[in-house]
Write a structure and sequence with these properties.
By secondary structure, this protein is mostly helical. The chain contains 11 helices and 3 strands, in the order αβααββαααααααα.
Length: 235
């Protein structure tokens, strides 16, 4: 694949964010409006990214359409798109950045009590969607899920979810996958913070993708972080 220019990288990054938010193919005019460029420019850029294998086009008719007419072309990112952005960002996060983020979250958990976790949760909800590193993004998502479960500690609907959370300690690194289901379960919980529920629902696909992108070493680091975060909150 030819090397992407900085402009192409930025366009792909913003397009991926738009798609992650709506989880449906995007018309080039919608992309143009959100990115502040002309329709022609957006269309040409999407076709260029399609040539790189990073975007794929499909044709859609309006819902309920019958009879002759013209379909609209819409675009969605391919599985390669997020992988390419991660590679361009340097792949896995550098150790210094990872240690700084990890220690910040663990210290926030250590010093807070159950009723004091709200500031950390608000911080995560605000910054996590903009996080480019797959391993840090996953760590912040897992922390948000753990805090969501903690907020439901005394409710009956949390018991089943908390039991599933314990699986992380039984099945090793594969246990990270349990968090995708936990996030979806929390998004449907009646007594959960509505902003958190919406956040988890919107980020579910990206979260699953981020976990699949991690190297073996990053999965090991993330698993150790998760166990430590759980130990602090459970204590």
């Amino acid at each position: 694949m030819k090397k992407l220019t900085r402009r192409q990288q930025e366009f792909l990054s913003k397009f991926l964010d738009l798609y992650t938010e709506g989880q449906e193919p995007l018309h080039y005019s919608t992309v143009a409006e959100h990115l502040g460029v002309g329709n022609v420019s957006a269309y040409e850029m999407l076709r260029l990214l399609e040539e790189h294998g990073l975007v794929e086009a499909e044709y859609q008719f309006p819902v309920g359409f019958r009879g002759p007419g013209r379909a609209s072309v819409v675009f969605r990112p391919t599985a390669l798109a997020a992988q390419e952005l991660a590679r361009l960002a340097g792949g896995d996060v550098n150790q210094q950045e990872w240690e700084a983020v990890k220690q910040h979250i663990l210290q926030q958990l250590e010093t807070g009590k159950a009723e004091d976790y709200e500031p950390l949760l608000e911080e995560l909800l605000a910054r996590t969607p903009d996080q480019r590193s797959p391993v840090i993004y996953a760590a912040e998502m897992i922390t948000a899920i753990i805090l969501g479960l903690e907020s439901l500690r005394s409710t009956a609907e949390a018991h089943g979810l908390r039991d599933r959370l314990k699986e992380i300690g039984k099945v090793g690194e594969l246990g990270l996958g349990v968090f995708t289901g936990l996030g979806m379960g929390l998004s449907l919980a009646e007594r959960i913070n509505r902003r958190l529920a919406s956040f988890l629902l919107m980020q579910s696909s990206r979260f699953q993708l981020a976990l699949s992108q991690l190297s073996d070493e990053s999965r090991r680091q993330l698993t150790e972080f998760t166990r430590e975060a759980m130990r602090i909150v459970e204590r």
